[in-house]
Amino acid sequence: VEQLLPKTRERLVTISDDVPLIQAAALLRQGTELVIVCSAAGFLSGVITKTDIVSQISHCLGASCITAAAVVMTSEVLLCRPKDSLGDVWERMKERGLKNVPVVDDESKPLGVLHARDILQLLLTEAESNEGLLQDYVMGIGYR
To answer: How far is CA 114 from the centre of its chain?
Structure first.
């Protein structure tokens, strides 16, 4: 995961857990796929996706539309750390049907958002490289 940190940092969008849900909705409308909700100390508390917003709005009455992000967020979050293996993270994402996973440090402070596309691109590049090395070896060219 560590080699993808620069890309993951570009996607990092955080809000405080006491911020009204409407602010998270505005961020998602601007193209963010995952909003990370943090405690006052900066630790990951949960995440908000478009699904969470739609679920809340579908039964929104009056002032409940401005409820705090912490009330609506998904608090059981699959996350990863920079030292985690991409293969392991990919397997866990597939099991849960996720496209995005927060990357956190050892204290659970957000560092970025890892997208499935990032993992697949890197794994494909590695597979193509290995295929090329094997082909060269079999043809007697040797290793590059």
So the answer is: 4
Other CB atoms within a 10 A radius of the CB of residue 110 amount to: 22
3-state SS assignment for residue 117 = helix
Half-sphere exposure at residue 63, Cβ-oriented, CA atoms within 13 angstroms: 1
pTM as predicted: 0.80
- In whole angstroms, what is the distance from residue 43 CA to residue 133 CA? 43
Of 98, 61, 62, the C-alpha closest to 78 is 98
DSSP 14: E
User: Reduced to 3 states, what is the DSSP secondary structure of residue 43?
Assistant: coil
Tokens of 139: 């043809």
CA dihedral sign of residues 47, 9, 99, 49: positive
What DSSP character marks residue 73? S
The rounded average pLDDT for each run of 10 residues, N- to C-terminus, in the chain (144 residues) is 92 94 90 94 95 80 72 92 93 94 96 93 72 61 57
User: How far is 144 from 138, CA to CA, in rounded Å?
Assistant: 13
The answer to whether 74 and 49 have CB atoms below 8 angstroms apart is yes
